[in-house]
Structures are given as structure tokens and as C-alpha cells.
Specification:
It is a single chain. The chain has 580 residues and is mainly alpha-helical. It folds into four domains: 209 residues, Rossmann fold, CATH 3.40.50; 151 residues, no CATH class; 93 residues; 93 residues, no CATH class. Helices cover 57% and strands 5% of the residues. Strand 4, helix 8 and strand 5 form a beta-alpha-beta unit. Helix 18 packs antiparallel against helix 19, helix 19 packs antiparallel against helix 20 and helix 29 packs antiparallel against helix 30. The longest helix has 24 residues.
């Protein structure tokens, strides 16, 4: 149900001013409490004067509920504010219209409070006249509160303490409705309650039940209440809508991430905005929901290793079909280098803007370059312009021709993807070798060398790249490779080279880092960070990370032993004697 429809139904229910129970049900995070509080603070219900809100989070007994109901009792006009001393004293007067006309009645009045709440016992516990009245008075004050003109809201029902039985709670609600003439609203996640208990008491106790599942656009407007620049607001809203995100908690997390990242995107091309923000939204969704919704939301490890054309791989078990549908809805093409830094920021809540800025600069350069590769861009666009089987061959032909024409400017992972795409049409399968050969003939020696350090998935491309030979090409110095990793450039070529470096190579790097053109403090922080990097999809890569961390630690400890100043500086980042 839309937010507007639910709001109108609640308004009509509350204005009836009749005893009853209205259950507003919905998943966690969709904004049930937000909608109700918004309604309460903005509406004046006909003839209504009193209101009480109770969250059952951790509540362990009906008695505790009664006390919370009593303490939180406020005039409806002050529903958006917590109860204070004035509202409490007015409440006491309302219980039975009691007026203290003598000292004895005044003490009896205080004793009444003492029995009801127990919050002044430490002051008056030893006063005989108080004790006398308390001993003979067994009706707590909170039980005397009339509810006939009170609108009551019980929230977080599924989060009650295990000591509270649901049967007792619903029995108390029934008593409030029938004996106290109260009008009640329940906010709950039906799926998290004991189904049999809820089903049993729903028929007896609940008069109305409405499912609250706000539309993604409605939820987005609630979470992004502060206006964003038009370009980013439109991109984020479209992506959240495409992925059907209506959980306000997730949307608010996206908003906090966007607040950190948007300054880095200022002045960038729309393509750069799309690349970064679309991935940001997808990462938030996967991080929050891949465990609770494993059938449709893929884990981050899966997303990080897949590209758009691999979605068409054969999958006899249809195991990943819904995951792929999610990635297609997200307009996901490939993870790219920025994916891991974005994941780190999403999972920690704090984005490393310095690292992200470098990746965004690369994406912007690529975006500007792609503007000039008109024939390749157009061929890619045509590929997704209508599903017309009669044009499939011509579309793919234009794409492969444009790829060869602009070979130097096409990212290598896209060559891998195109090979998989060619597998889909029989007449192109036999031409994949020719396509790869022509591509390799067009690129220069530097590009070829970078290809040899990449891992490709298509067997034809794998075979051709594995046979590339380079004569008189100098071997990359260890110090240079370590320096590149120390700048956050975790490319396979640098990782592969450093994997065979020794502890002495790391020692030499820290002794004279000027050749790597990097600041020593940043270098230490970046290399030590490999100790916490995970690569569950690639065990060998995780072993390389651990090796880098270990050799970095050992090399730094050696330097710390050689100078008191070095020891002082190094201990800021690696306590001497520290073991991973």
C-alpha cells in the first residue's frame, strides 16, 4: 500500500474515536514508525485529547507495559514531545480527580504514587505514616488511569523480551479495548512474530490490518529529505527505484554515503556520476540484504567478479538467475577498480575520499575518452536498443568492427566480454580467434604487457594472451612494484611481482622510498592495510595480501631496531613486537 493510502486510513480510524485495534504491519525499516509519528504530529483528531506511545523493545511483562503506558501519557497536542514533570503531575490529577485537603490526605496521595511507581521509596521509605498507607493499599496508581479518550500506539511488538508472552500482551490489548474503551494502533513486523499466536489473536483482537509497503519513490523522498543536487538526486532515485529499495534504513545509509562522495563528483560528466552512484546503491543493497534475501540479492564477492556479458553463461541449475536479474536492473556492467574502495566505505560507514578521488579521476578520464569513441559507443548503445533477432548479427558486427578500430581505447575486460557475446551467435563463434588476433595486432607493447598480467575468463583470449612473448623488456623492479601497491594501485601485475619479493626488498623500499615518489607515512599505512584485506573468492590472492603484510611488518621492525627516532615513528602504526 502507498504511504498516502495508509495515512488516510489511519486518519479515518483515529477520527472515529471508537474503541478498536488497528494493526499496521510491514517489514523492518520501511518507516511504519516514521509515518505514524508524522501523522500524529501533523493531525488534530476530532475531540481527542490524550495520547500514549509505548515501544515493546525489551519489555518483559504486562505490568511493565502498564507502567510505560502511564508514564508516557501526554496531551495529544504534545504527542511529538516526551513526557515531562508537568504532564506527569497533570496525569496524576486525572487518575481520580484527587485533591489533597489535609496533611494526611497529602501523604496518602504520595503513598499512592509510591505504590504505583516505586520511584520515591528511597526518600520516604522510613516515614511511618507513609508505610502505613502503603501497606494497606494494593491498587497501583497506573491501574487507575482511564483510557476512554486515549489514542494508544504500541510499537516494536516483535522486539519484546522473551519473558513476555504474546498471549498475555494481546490479552491486555483486548482488555484495553473492551474494558477501558481505548483506541489502539499496533506497529509490527508480522513475519517476525509467532505466526500461530498472531493468527489466533488477530481474529479476536484486531479490527483492521493494513500492510505498509511504501513505493520506492515514496521511501526515497522520506530518506532523502534534504535536497541533493538535481543530477545526483535523479540518478540515486532512479537506481533505488530500479532495485525496488523501500527500506528507509538502507536509503538513509545511502544518503550518508552520498553526502561524503558527492563533493568528489562535482563538475564531472554524467557518465561518471552514473558509474559511481549506481555502484554505490548496489553495494549498499548487497551489503544489507544478501544474507536476509539470498535468493534475489547477490553477495558482494559474486558482484565483484562478474561482468555484463557473463550474465548469459549457461546455468543449468538456474542458481544465479535472480542474482543476474538484480545486476541487470542495476545497469551493472563490471566492478572496476573503484568497487573495492566503495565496499570498504559502505561496510565501515566512512569513505576514504582521498582513495576514491583517484579512482573517480580515472573514471572521468575514461568517460571523456569514451565521448570521442563514437562508433564504439554507438555500437554498444545499439546492442540494447530493442530486442530484434533479425538485427542481432549486424549489431554484433558493428560492435566488433568498432572495437578493432578503437582497440587502444577499449578497456581489456570489455574484450573478454565481447568474446563471450560472440559465443551466443553460431556464425561468430568461428571468428573469435580472428577477432582476438586483430585486437592484439592493434595494441602497443605496453598494452600487451598489461594484458599478460590480467586474468581473462574466455578461453580463446586466455590462450592468445598466454602466448605473448616480450623480448628485451626490462623486468619490473621490486621497489617500483611495492611503491605502486603503497599508493593503492593493487593491480595484478604489481601483486604478481611483489609476491616473489623478499623481506630485504621491503626493507630497501622503506630505506629509500624517494624513488617511488610516495610519502613514507602513507606508504606504511597502505601496506599494513593488506593485513585486513579479504579475497574469499581467490585464496591465492589472499595469501599474497598476508605475505605483503608480514614482510612489511618484519621490514619495519628491522628499521625500528636501528634508530630510536625510527622506532618512535614506526610505533605509531606498528607497535614493536606486534604480531598479526
Amino acid at each position: 500500500m502507498s504511504a498516502q493510502f495508509v495515512r488516510e486510513q489511519l486518519r479515518q480510524y483515529a477520527n472515529k474515536k471508537q474503541p478498536g485495534v488497528f494493526a499496521l504491519v510491514g517489514e523492518w525499516g520501511v518507516g511504519k514508525t516514521h509515518l505514524w509519528n508524522e501523522l500524529i504530529s501533523s493531525e488534530t483528531f476530532a475531540g481527542r485529547s490524550k495520547y500514549s506511545y509505548v515501544s515493546l523493545f525489551g519489555i518483559d511483562s504486562v505490568t511493565a507495559i502498564e507502567k510505560e503506558l502511564f508514564i508516557n501519557h501526554v496531551p495529544l497536542s504534545k504527542a511529538s514531545k516526551p513526557a515531562d514533570l508537568n504532564t506527569f503531575m497533570n496525569l496524576l490529577k486525572d487518575t481520580r480527580g484527587f485533591k489533597a485537603t489535609s496533611v494526611e490526605k497529602g501523604y496518602k496521595y504520595l503513598a499512592w504514587v509510591y505504590e504505583g511507581l516505586g520511584w520515591i521509596s528511597h526518600v520516604f521509605g522510613r516515614v511511618p505514616i507513609i508505610s502505613k498507607y502503603v501497606a494497606g493499599f494494593d491498587i497501583p496508581l497506573y491501574k487507575l488511569l482511564p483510557h476512554n479518550d486515549t489514542l494508544i500506539c504500541f510499537d516494536d511488538i516483535e522486539r519484546h523480551s522473551s519473558a513476555l508472552e504474546l498471549e498475555d500482551f494481546f490479552g491486555y490489548v483486548e482488555k484495553l479495548k473492551t474494558s477501558k474503551s481505548a483506541q489502539i494502533v499496533l506497529l509490527l513486523n508480522r513475519d517476525q512474530l509467532k505466526c500461530d499466536v498472531y493468527r489466533k489473536y488477530k481474529e479476536k483482537v484486531i479490527d483492521y490490518e493494513l500492510l505498509y509497503a511504501p513505493l520506492p519513490d515514496e521511501a526515497f523522498d522520506i530518506a532523502f529529505s534534504e535536497h541533493l543536487p538535481d543530477a545526483s538526486n535523479g540518478i540515486l532515485k532512479d537506481q533505488c527505484s530500479s532495485l525496488k529499495i523501500n527500506n528507509i534504513r538502507i536509503l538513509m545509509q545511502i544518503a550518508r554515503s552520498a553526502e561524503q562522495i558527492l563533493p568528489l563528483l562535482e563538475g564531472k560528466l554524467p557518465e561518471t556520476y552514473l558509474d559511481v552512484l549506481n555502484k554505490l546503491v548496489l553495494i549498499h543493497l548487497c551489503d544489507a540484504c544478501s544474507t536476509s534475501m539470498p535468493e534475489t540479492i547477490p553477495p558482494l564477492d559474486y558482484v565483484s567478479t562478474h561482468t555484463v556479458y557473463q550474465f548469459f553463461d549457461d546455468d543449468p541449475e538456474k542458481k544465479y538467475e535472480k542474482w543476474r536479474n538484480t545486476l541487470i536492473a542495476a545497469s551493472f556492467e563490471n566492478a572496476g577498480d573503484i568497487f573495492e574502495p566503495l565496499v570498504n566505505g559502505v561496510t565501515s560507514g566512512i569513505h576514504d575520499c582521498e582513495v576514491l578521488s583517484k579512482h573517480i579521476t580515472k573514471i572521468e578520464q575514461s568517460s571523456r575518452l569514451n565521448q570521442n569513441i563514437t562508433s564504439y559507443n554507438q555500437a554498444n548503445t545499439d546492442l540494447w536498443t530493442g530486442f530484434t533477432p533479425a538485427n542481432d548479427a549486424s549489431k554484433l558486427q558493428r560492435l566488433t568492427d568498432a572495437t578493432i578500430e578503437h582497440a587502444e581505447n577499449i578497456p581489456p575486460h570489455e574484450i573478454d566480454d565481447i568474446c563471450f557475446l560472440m559465443d551466443q551467435l553460431p556464425e561468430f563463434c568461428s571468428r573469435i580467434q580472428e577477432f582476438v588476433r586483430n585486437y592484439l595486432d592493434k595494441v602497443n607493447i605496453v598494452t600487451k604487457k598489461s594484458l599478460s598480467n590480467r586474468t581473462f575468463k574466455h578461453p580463446v583470449l586466455q590462450e592468445f594472451v598466454s602466448k605473448l612473448a616480450f623480448e628485451d623488456v626490462p623486468i619490473m623492479p621490486f621497489k617500483y612494484a611495492i611503491g605502486m601497491l603503497a599508493q593503492g594501485k593493487a593491480d595484478n601485475q604489481y601483486l604478481k611481482r611483489v609476491s616473489v619479493a623478499t623481506e630485504d626488498d621491503f626493507y630497501d623500499f622503506f630505506k629509500d622510498p624517494e624513488n617511488s615518489k610516495i610519502y613514507l607515512k602513507e606508504s606504511i599505512q597502505c601496506l599494513l592495510a593488506y593485513g585486513s584485506k579479504k579475497a574469499s573468492a581467490n585464496l591465492s590472492l589472499e595469501n599474497i595480501y598476508l605475505d605483503i603484510y608480514t614482510k612489511t611488518c618484519n621490514a619495519l621492525r628491522r628499521h625500528a631496531k636501528e634508530s630510536d627516532l625510527s622506532r618512535f615513528l614506526i610505533e605509531k602504526y606498528l607497535p614493536i613486537g606486534h604480531e598479526k
